[in-house]
Design a protein that fits this description.
There is one protein chain. It contains 5 helices and 2 strands. The chain has a domain at about 70-145. The protein has a two-stranded antiparallel ribbon. It is mainly alpha-helical. The protein is elongated.
Length: about 150
């Protein structure tokens, strides 16, 4: 028994796509709520959340702070479902999600001239990573060969 959870699930309870998407949705909602709270605190401190493109500068609204982590949670679960059942699936999901999380931090670091905005946006990326990636990786890890037991 090599389950990443304290009590290994039965083999028939290997995580399904539906269960993974549900976990991604729940962790995405929690990340979205925390990011929205962080957005509100930043807004109260006078931080302007802006996105700069080659020609325009637009403000990032509170809905993006709430909805983007939910979408990331669901997409992470859908992508993680592709490696269910392979050896080391949990580690693959964890490290791939970590690399994507680090790469995604480059976007806010190159956006605004305001360092407060940069820091808060990177913190939002970190919150989303911390809540979504480890949980989805743990669930996918239970689909690895030998992780479940016969009951």
């Amino acid at each position: 028994m090599h389950s990443v959870t304290p009590i290994a699930p039965p083999r028939v309870a290997s995580p399904s796509l539906r269960f993974l998407v549900y976990a991604g949705l729940v962790t995405g909602i929690w990340a979205g709520v925390l990011c929205l709270a962080l957005y509100g605190i930043g807004h109260l401190l006078g931080i302007t959340f802006t996105r700069t493109t080659s020609l325009t500068q637009t403000t990032i609204g509170w809905t993006a702070a709430l909805v983007v982590p939910i979408i990331v949670g669901i997409l992470s679960a859908l992508i993680a479902s592709l490696v269910r059942g392979i050896p080391h699936a949990g580690r693959v999901v964890f490290w791939a999600g970590t690399i994507l999380g680090i790469v995604s931090c480059a976007v806010p670091l190159h956006q605004a001239d305001n360092w407060g905005s940069r820091v808060v946006l990177v913190m939002m990326h970190a919150i989303t990573w911390a809540l979504v990636v480890p949980q989805v990786a743990r669930i996918v890890g239970d689909s690895e060969p030998g992780a479940s037991v016969d009951r």
